[in-house]
Amino acid sequence: MGATRTGRKPPRVGDQPLFRRMLIGIVLVIVALLIVAPLVVIGVEAFSKGWVVYRDTIIHPDTLHAIGLTVFAAIVAVPVNTAFGVAAAWSITKFDFWGRRFLLVVIEIPFSVSPIVAGVAYLFVYGLQGVFGPMLDEYGIKILFAIPGIILASMFVTAPFVARELIPLMQAQGRDLEEAATSLGASGWRTFFSVTLPNVKWALLYGVVLCNARVMGEFGAVSVVSGNIRGQTNTLPLHIELLYHDYQAAGAFAAASILALIAVFTIIAKVALERQGAGRVRRPALVTSPAEKAQ
Amino acid sequence: MKIRLENVVKTFETFRAVRDVSLTIESGELVALLGPSGSGKTTILRMVAGLEYADGGHIYFGDQDATDIPVRDRGVGFVFQHYALFPHMTVAENIAFGMKVSKVKREKAAIEARVVELLRLVRLEGLGDRFPAQISGGQRQRVALARALSVDPKVLLLDEPFGALDANVRHDLRRWLREIHRELGITTIFVTHDQEEALDLADRVVILKDGHIIQQGTAEEVCRNPQSAFVMKFLGDANVLAAEVRDGKAYASGAAIDVSGMADGKAELYARPADLDWSAQGPGIPASITRVLDRPDGRRVLATTETGDQLEFDVEPERPVKAGEGGFVTLRRAKVFAL
Amino acid sequence: MRRNVLPGLRLSLGVTLFYVGLIVVLPLAALVFKASSLGPEDYWRIVSSSRALASYRVTVLSALGATIFNLFFGLALAWVLTRYRFPGWRIVDAMVDLPFALPTAVAGIALTALFTTNGWFGSILADLGIKVAYTPLGIMIAMCFTSLPFIVRTVQPVLEDLDPALEEAAQSLGGSDWQIFRKVILPLLTPALLAGVSLSFARSLGEFGAIIFIAGNQPMSTEITALLVFIRLEEYDYQAAAAIASVLLIAAFVMLALTNWMQSRALRYTVKG
Q: What would the pLDDT profile of B275-316 be if each residue is shown by its tens digit?
């Protein structure tokens, strides 16, 4: 008789079988309709005109150029953002200075700002009607409607990604390890690379992966500053729009399928990194640090 | 309320937490479940509460089989190890919660009056409006107790009630819990890994190991008559010497002790520090003093026997012993357990 | 100020301030500068024009609708993912992030394909007399999609970390499931829920890529504010673009302040005992 009763748990809140099954059912249906269906429809539409159209879209020079530009933007923007994220995290978590919490808020601003607003804002810095535009024009430097503009706009929208992963984690880890390393005579760089970095490497990579996905997929901000010149300043997301409005739906979906694939790989990488513990320490640490509590 | 556990079994995954435990707790008794971690004491308490279900066996409350009654209908008051106070409710709201959710509808005024009464009982008058984060650990413990008592439970269950507190707070609360128990006369079971706590507080101590009851009895019974080496060691410091039983006598490092009735063979001799003494002449166990530790209430002597065993014992504060001195350790009394 | 034990403050803070200044603060300041060069009357005329007002209306109402949907669905999804184990739950858990990972333009054309009158869902809904694509409902669905993960991902960790002893305590005191959910669990989730709601709402207000394909973009009815900014740019009416963009910027700052306030409230109870 003992054996048949093994493993029974008293019911927790919401554990009644009927309620449980209904809730799981409802949630799964909505997930299927709202999240899975869009992913599936991209694949279906991409091949709706057959493999040949799909292939032709992908190997079309304009598409290849768009892919190249998207990758190039990521190659520049992601490392720069990573360096910034590391510097921001180091300064904010390892030191107490006036305005620290304000700086935290400022770093997070790009998350709240509409990408269109970001694009417009860059227009008013580097555009002909902007603050520096006329001056830059005199020297023949073209930032807007050119690749530098695309990269700058991408940097704006992704600025918080790496910092946001590192700051809560490094905050939670405190300063003991670094102080110990320094007391043993390690230099600042040495301390960072041999003590800090090994403890935050997964979180760093996590931020990099998410940052990369956003750079490659950014649409609104880039569409304002790029000028949409086919074969010149068209990134992959912009190219999709162009094909779509050209009534080449299958082509648009073919191009979209590449980005969808990147999204799927991003999620796989994200899950793999979460297994390593990345993405665990979350935002609340941003608001109050242990150091501040102690003061 | 009398509580009876009958052949209770509980297995987690493959770990057998509780194996065939039977135990009777009389109405109004204050019982301690004492054991090291992993001994199954908390699991037993949680099964009595209905927070775990037994895989086998039965739990009776009085004559009623309570084995499968869910916790919310079982009528127990449970004090959680870390108190589990609702952080978003004030102290008063925490205490009132059980009365508010009860199937028995109470007047608002009646609930308030009862909260005031309970706050007075746990001596927290005036702290009703504070949040749990705003009071001290000892105060939280008392709020948890008041909350558990608010529903007039048939049984009060406490999981490591003093585990998270400082030593001096712990001491006061222990005495105070004893008073409350005397005042209310409610059947109470508490879990602890601290033998001093169990012996000080409980009418009866139930000692557990690996999911079994090893021994139970009053503090006097388990202290004076431990029935196994485990109980001997677990209840306090003990010196151990290898011994040999021959013809009703146990021999260890030159000392002999009467153990009539015990079978011949290898054994271990256990003696508390207070069971040993030091003298310059034999008979006894030849040893030399390696260190003397001075303490407020006496002197603890560390000695090494000729056979290399380490012994610890206490002598009066006035005794002039010092490290390096040779002599004999004498046995006042000892327990011998067969191997 | 305390003397610093660790090295590198000057370098790291210098890099940080330079980057934040150049990439974040300078453009936003330029935008504010441009908008403020208009003068109060012109500014007011532009931001309160009937077309602008209509765009605020459709943006805010759609965002509100999407947020309310996500409040319930996000809570249910977070609950299911933390409390229940069923085959494939890990995949569902991973899929929740798809709206963050999928570029908005891709999401936009995919949702449009699903909801046009000859799409998979659109054709069924059309039979029922419901039109989604090129209506405010389409805008709402696009917003639901892009802002879905916010509420799930803010509530989920709180739900995971909720001490089971709190529920057990409430059960031992005789509370029913519904009472325990309403009086113990929900109040503890509320700060996270509100933070998620404000993030989700802010994202919906600013969303562009996912919406423009499905929205129809008709002035006065299905034109969102972000699109109006874009249209003013294409008409070379830079001042109007700046003015309307500044409205979005102000809304973003209000939401940012609100989110921060809610997160600091979320910490109110978390002093460990």
A: 999 988 878 889 999 999 999 988 999 999 988 889 999 999
* C256 with A108: Cβ contact below 8 A: yes
CA distance C248 to C242: 10
Please tell me if residue B228 touches chain A, with a CB cutoff of 8 Å: no
Are the C-beta atoms of residues B53 and A5 closer than 8 Å to each other? yes
The shortest C-alpha distance from C62 to chain A (Å) reads 16
Could you tell me if B6 lies within 8 Å of chain A, comparing CB atoms?
A: no
Tokens of A265: 């790989």
Tokens of residue C232, six digits: 């003013």
Number of C-beta neighbours around residue B147 at 10 A: 32
Could you tell me the pTM of the whole model? 0.86
A90 CB neighbours in chain C (<8 A) are 8, 12
Interchain CB distance below 8 Å, C179 and B102 = no
Q: How distant is the Cα of C83 from the closest Cα of chain B, in angstroms?
A: 17
pLDDT tens per residue, range A96-134: 889 998 999 899 899 889 999 999 999 999 988 888 888
Go through the domains of chain B in sequence order and give each one's CATH number: 3-229 (3.40.50.300), 237-338 (2.40.50.140)
> In this complex, do A10 and B53 lie within 8 Å of one another by their Cβ atoms?
yes
Q: DSSP string of chain C?
A: -PPPSSS-HHHHHHHHHHHIIIIIIHHHHHHHHHHHTT-HHHHHHHHTSHHHHHHHHHHHHHHHHHHHHHHHHHHHHHHHHHH---TTHHHHHHHTTHHHHS-HHHHHHHHHHHHSTTSHHHHHHHHTT---TTSHHHHHHHHHHHHHHHHHHHHHHHHHHS-HHHHHHHHHTT--HHHHIIIIIHHHHHHHHHHHHHHHHHHHHH--HHHHHHH---TTTT--HHHHHHHHHHTT-HHHHHHHHHHHHHHHHHHHHHHHHHHHHHTTT----
Overall domain count for chain A: 2
List of chain C residues whose C-beta atoms are within 8 Å of the C-beta of residue A260: 102, 106
Residue from the list C17, C107, C177 with its beta carbon closest to the beta carbon of A13: C177
pLDDT at C31: 93
Tell me if A109 and C263 make a contact (CB, 8 A cut-off). no
Give the domain extent around C239: 39-266
Q: Is residue C25 part of a domain?
A: no
Report chain A's mean pLDDT, rounded to a whole number: 87
Q: Is the peptide bond before A17 cis (omega within 30 degrees of 0)?
A: no
- Which residue is closest to A213 within chain C, CA to CA? C101
Q: Please indicate if any CB of chain A lies within 8 Å of the CB of B21.
A: no
By Cβ distance, the residue of C172, C180, C187 closest to B88 is: C187
Question: For position C256, what pLDDT does the model report?
Answer: 87
The CATH number covering residue A129 comes to: 1.10.3720.10
Identify whether C184 is part of a domain. yes
Closest-CA distance, B311 to chain A, in angstroms, reads 41
Instruction: Mark yes or no for CB contact A9/B57 under 8 Å.
Output: no
